[in-house]
């Protein structure tokens, strides 16, 4: 009864078990054992142990047990399953001699395939980690608190340029290489970790190269890796890497940022970083000064509140267009209200900064206080207006009197008097055009000239200009001839200013033409423009004068007693009119030959 | 005869204008040296045309015109401004004030009569020259 219970237990135990006789025959084998080797239950009995284990003789198996021990744990003896595949096994082998004097062996076995696999994986994992650490050029170190010994990885040595030939202990070597400015901070930090005050510490510091010529930046992390039973730190492990390149970029960035901050802060003009709703995010000292507010006060308000109500609508329109991405910047002159209620005229440039998605992020504003400039401009305008009036009034009397005097209907005068009146009239007119030129020039220079641009057939305007200037041309004995390719061509011009340009070119051409010659006036289409040319035949423009011909107050030296006069402003004004209304002007000249002045005007959009 | 009220602070210019306008014999010219004087004179004058200088001490030409226009009987009288500030925006402004014409100074006295007659015809087409 008791024996059969033991046999039952043997048969049903989940641990594979078998008993092998001296001849290698399996006398007893349980179900778990049959399954381990892939056999049906009970079919393994009486097979040979050599069929399921990689041994050829019983003495080979017995040899695993080293007397006086009677058992052994075997890990290098794989089993073989029914299909011939090896099975990694852990075998507990026990031997004894039975009552008949036969040597018996009992084997308790465990399939360790999963364990082997896990061990292999963990070896591979470790190798990968090792590769990664080396690949990332991370040096690893371990500090033993009891011995004060530092153990390091090969990479740590490589980073510190140590080949093993160093004479002092590693810890001393490391200490001697840390930058004196960083030494205290780093040592204190590491000490915090070793004292157990911090579980983990990080620091960046400089170390000297082995040759002592360079400083390299390193980043180091250290963490407690082992404590004793009382919680005292006995070991700390850490990693170190070279961050010199990163640090260089970082330092350069900090320097640039500092310079930028300084240029923002110390700029002599007002600067502000403005948020999307107009709030001030950053302001400089100059802005605080010109607006009369402190930085804190400006942070609590926005540009809308500080803008003069009369200028706000226009300003907001431009701001809105900028925000909508219709323009990338705008410039405007507007009034601000200072803290004391006074008006400050500001010349404002606003640019938008977008984020990485292209969406508006903030605005950069530059504000120059032009209050004084505006005041001076107004004074100058007033002065110009007054001078204009004061000069023209006596001229009116002068020229009016002369005109009435010269009128043959009203008076009869001797020829000599008539001649003198002519001289007075001519010079009076010259004075008038001088006044006009100077006033015009002033307006153009201040870009205050307003143009009434509209579409006009250019041929008509040219004909009008020629009629007006014909009497002048006759004085020089020259004639105008026109060559108009397209009579219907319309240009976008200010007719009054166009006449001014034509009169200037026609009168210049007449003045400098050979007596009795012809002045050609042509009109043609040139791409998207209309090109008008005036050509005369005369002495031409001297090489020296060509470069400065369009400069104000420039006049060529007179030749052949030609009548000159004028301010030397005519061509300069002409060029300004042409350029400010969207055209271009230039000339070609041969000395003692042909001179052509040409200019373009934009072709009318509605032109047929 | 066309009755003209000429307001001009500069005596020489008044003289020249008077001589120029006398040549044709078409005009009956009354002259005042200031806007203030003109306002006093205008009531019993009932002119056909105002010839006004723009920049004058005291009331300017446009201010004088404003006074004239308050009288309904003078509200339709054509006005010609004479100005030494003939910049385009100034001229534009004078036309906006209701000028029939703007003559810039210096002006040619020999064509003054013609310019005035043209303006009169434009404003009152029935007036025969």
Could you report the average pLDDT of chain B, rounded to the nearest whole number? Answer: 90
Number of domains of chain B: 1
Q: Major sheet of chain B: size, sense and barrel closure?
A: 5 strands, parallel
Number of helices of chain B: 5
- Give the termini separation of chain A: 126 Å
What is the highest CATH level, the class of chain B?
Answer: Alpha Beta
Overall structural domain count of chain A: 5
Helix content of chain B: 40-55%
Order of helices and strands of chain B: EHEHEHEHEH
Q: Got a strand count of chain A?
A: 24
State the CATH class of the largest domain in chain A. Answer: Alpha Beta
Biggest interface between chains:
A-B, 25 and 20 residues
CATH superfamily of chain B: Response regulator
Low-confidence stretches of chain B: none
The computed structural class of chain A is alpha+beta
Strand order of the largest sheet of chain A: 2-1-7-6-3
Q: Strand pairing plus helix content of chain B: what structural class? A: alpha/beta
Q: Could you say what the CATH architecture of chain B is?
A: 3-Layer(aba) Sandwich
Give a short synopsis of this structure.
The complex is a heterodimer of chains A (about 600) and B (about 130). By secondary structure, chain A is α+β, with helices and mostly antiparallel strands.
């Amino acid at each position: 009864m008791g024996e059969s219970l033991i046999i039952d237990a043997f048969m049903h135990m989940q641990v594979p078990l078998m008993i092998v006789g001296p001849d290698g025959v399996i006398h007893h084998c349980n179900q778990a054992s049959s399954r381990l080797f892939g056999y049906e239950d009970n079919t393994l009995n009486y097979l040979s142990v050599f069929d399921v284990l990689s041994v050829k003789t019983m003495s080979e198996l017995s040899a695993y047990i080293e007397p006086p021990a009677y058992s052994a744990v075997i890990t290098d003896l794989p089993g073989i399953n029914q299909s011939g595949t090896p099975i990694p096994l852990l075998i507990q082998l026990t031997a004894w001699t039975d009552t008949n004097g036969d040597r018996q062996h009992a084997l308790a076995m465990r399939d360790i395939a999963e364990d082997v696999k896990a061990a292999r994986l963990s070896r591979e994992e470790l190798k990968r980690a090792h590769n990664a650490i080396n690949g990332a050029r991370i040096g690893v170190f371990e500090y033993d608190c009891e011995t004060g010994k530092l153990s390091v990885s090969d990479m740590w040595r490589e980073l510190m340029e140590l080949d093993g030939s160093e004479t002092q202990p590693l810890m001393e070597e490391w200490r001697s290489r840390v930058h004196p400015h960083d030494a205290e901070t780093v040592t204190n930090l590491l000490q915090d970790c070793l004292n157990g005050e911090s579980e983990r510490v990080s620091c960046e510091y400089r170390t000297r190269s082995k040759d002592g010529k360079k400083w390299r930046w390193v980043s180091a992390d250290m963490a407690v890796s082992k404590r004793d039973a009382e919680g005292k730190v006995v070991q700390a492990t850490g990693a170190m890497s070279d961050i010199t390149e990163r640090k260089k970029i970082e330092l350069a960035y900090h320097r640039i940022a500092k310079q930028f901050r300084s240029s923002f802060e110390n700029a002599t003009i007002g600067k502000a970083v403005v948020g999307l709703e107009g709030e001030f995010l950053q302001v400089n000292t100059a802005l605080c000064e010109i607006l009369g507010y402190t930085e804190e006060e400006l942070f609590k308000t926005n540009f809308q509140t500080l803008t003069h109500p009369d200028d706000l609508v226009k300003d907001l329109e431009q701001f809105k267009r900028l925000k909508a991405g219709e323009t990338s910047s705008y410039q405007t002159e507007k009034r601000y209200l200072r803290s004391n209620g006074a008006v400050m005229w500001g010349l404002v440039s606003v640019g938008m900064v977008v984020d990485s998605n292209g969406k508006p992020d903030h605005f950069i504003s530059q504000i120059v206080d032009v209050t004084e400039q505006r005041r001076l401009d107004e004074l100058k305008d007033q002065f110009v207006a007054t001078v204009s009036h004061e000069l023209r009034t006596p001229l009116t009397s002068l020229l009016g009197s002369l005109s009435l005097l010269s009128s043959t209907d009203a008076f009869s005068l001797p020829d000599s008097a008539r001649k003198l009146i002519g001289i007075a009239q001519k010079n009076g007119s010259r004075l008038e055009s001088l006044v006009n030129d100077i006033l015009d020039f002033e307006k153009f220079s201040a870009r205050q000239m307003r143009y009434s641009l509209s579409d006009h057939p250019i041929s008509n305007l040219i004909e009008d200009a020629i009629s007006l200037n014909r009497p002048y041309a006759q004085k020089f004995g020259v004639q105008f001839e026109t060559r108009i390719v397209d009579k219907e061509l319309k240009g976008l011009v200010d007719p009054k200013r166009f006449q001014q340009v034509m009169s200037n070119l026609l009168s210049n051409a007449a003045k400098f033409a050979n007596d009795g010659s012809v002045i050609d006036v042509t009109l043609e289409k040139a791409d998207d423009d209309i090109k008008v040319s005036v050509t005369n035949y005369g002495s031409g423009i001297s090489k020296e004068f060509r470069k400065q011909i369009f400069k104000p107050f420039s006049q060529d030296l007179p030749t052949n007693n030609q009548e000159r006069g004028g301010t030397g402003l005519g061509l300069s004004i002409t060029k300004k009119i042409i350029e400010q209304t969207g055209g271009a002007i230039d000339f070609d000249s041969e000395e003692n030959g042909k001179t052509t002045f040409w200019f373009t005007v934009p072709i009318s959009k509605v032109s047929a | 005869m066309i009755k003209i009220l000429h307001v001009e602070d500069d005596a020489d210019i008044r003289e020249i204008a008077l001589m120029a306008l006398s040549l044709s014999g078409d005009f009956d010219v009354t002259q005042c040296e200031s806007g203030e004087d003109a306002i006093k004179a205008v009531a019993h004058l009932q002119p056909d045309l105002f010839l006004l200088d723009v920049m004058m001490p005291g009331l300017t030409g446009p201010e004088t015109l404003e006074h004239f226009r308050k009288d309904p009987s003078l509200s339709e009288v054509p006005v010609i401004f004479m100005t030494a500030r003939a910049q385009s925006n100034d001229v534009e402004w004078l036309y906006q004030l209701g000028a029939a014409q703007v003559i810039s100074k210096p002006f040619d006295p020999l064509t003054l009569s013609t310019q005035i007659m043209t303006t009169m015809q434009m404003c009152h087409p029935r007036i025969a020259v």
